[in-house]
Write a structure and sequence with these properties.
With about 350 residues, the protein is α/β, with parallel strands linked by helices. It contains 15 helices and 7 strands. Strands 1, 2, 3, 4, 5, 6 and 7 form a 7-stranded mixed sheet that branches. Helix 4 runs parallel beside helix 6. The N and C termini lie far apart (about 65 Å).
Length: about 350
């Protein structure tokens, strides 16, 4: 070895037991800064990537509008970019077309610097593929950011028409809870709840449905939403020597309370509320600890009449929600929207245009 070569020396780290008492706090604080810095770097990189993609898409849109050329130019552009920037990925003809669609979907460049900038590119592809309405696309983008949805979860929520179901359960939360808690609790509900992952259930009994939900508890929790922790099925409660068993028991981490879910395979009956209220009272007395808020009840039925559920809840002081559950969302088109369908002639014109561009 050359005598002028300097070999770095690495000292072994001292044992933590030899360090001052304040060292763990220092480690935690520095680690938090490192993690925060990493997140900011990733977010900034994603923001720059999306801004670049939007600019490319805008250039393509503007030139296409001015010159009227088709997709063959995009194919050539993709090949030339790969030649000019060898090893660079992300500029396939398909991705360039998505960039064009991205710029068309968000005409205002400033929006790419706000909510949508926090979503990865694959999320945007899902939004472009599955949502045509601009306002609804922005709603799902904000929901994905707020709830931390992966791309696959975002796609599932769009397919399950989450925007039509979120916060829709019939409840008495507004009068049974404080305003700030009632708003959060209401938004944590769905109507109907979509249990498409358990298969057809028209002839199943309630216990069989419960078993399927627990068997697919991960998907069940995804449908319930953020903050729910599963505690058990057919949870035994004892009161004055009598035994009671609540169908499903959860704890909500944000609301800081237990949630009792009663599952019915029949239509709503007001008498079900008395049974649910009993279980909630026992949970409050037997399971709840200091700091826990009053238990929330959620009654899931196969179908209900909203006005009947609203009247049935009026005399209940404990917070209860009533919603339906289903295994499939009805995708039939409402009559009022049928006139919005394109005519055969319009479809043929669109296909002819697409053929010319290809």
């Amino acid at each position: 070895m050359d005598e002028n070569t300097i070999t770095p020396r690495f000292e072994s780290a001292p044992a933590r037991s030899l360090l001052p008492d304040w060292y763990p706090d220092l480690l935690d604080r520095v680690a938090a800064h490192v993690a925060s810095g990493h997140r900011r770097a990733v977010t900034a990189a994603n923001k720059e990537l999306l801004a670049g993609y939007w600019s490319i898409g805008r250039e393509i849109l503007d030139r296409q509008h001015e010159e009227g050329w088709g997709t063959k130019v995009i194919d050539r552009l993709s090949a030339d970019l790969k030649t000019r920037f060898p090893g660079t990925r992300g500029y396939s003809p398909r991705n360039l077309k998505y960039m064009r669609a991205f710029a068309a979907a968000w005409p205002d460049a400033s929006i790419v610097q706000r909510t949508v900038a926090q979503l990865p590119w694959r999320h945007h592809i899902a939004l472009l593929d599955k949502v045509d309405d601009a306002d609804l696309r922005l709603w799902y983008a904000a929901a994905a950011v707020e709830r931390g949805w992966s791309r696959d979860v975002l796609a599932l929520q769009i397919e399950g028409r989450f925007h039509e179901r979120a916060g829709r359960a019939v409840t008495n939360f507004a009068v049974a809870m404080t305003p700030e808690r009632s708003d959060l609790a209401q938004q944590a509900t769905r109507d109907p709840y979509l249990f498409d992952f358990i298969g057809a259930t028209d002839t199943w009994r309630e216990r069989e449905v419960e078993e399927k939900l627990v068997e697919h508890v991960g998907k069940f929790l995804l449908e319930l939403g953020q903050g729910f922790a599963f505690l058990g099925r057919q949870v035994r409660l004892e009161l004055a020597g009598d035994e009671f068993f609540c169908d499903l028991l959860f704890y909500h981490l944000e609301l800081r309370c237990y949630v009792v879910i009663e599952l019915k395979a029949v239509k709503f009956d007001a008498s079900f509320l008395g049974q649910l209220g009993l279980y909630m009272a026992v949970v409050d007395d037997v399971l709840a600890k200091e700091g826990d808020k009053p238990t929330i009840g959620l009654l899931l039925c196969r179908n209900k009449k909203e006005v009947v559920a609203e009247y049935a809840l009026r005399n209940f002081k404990a917070p209860i929600g009533v919603a339906e559950w289903t295994t499939a969302i009805n995708n039939s088109l409402p009559e009022e929207f049928e006139s919005a369908l394109p005519s055969v002639a319009e479809l043929e014109a669109e296909l002819a245009l697409a053929t010319e561009e290809g």
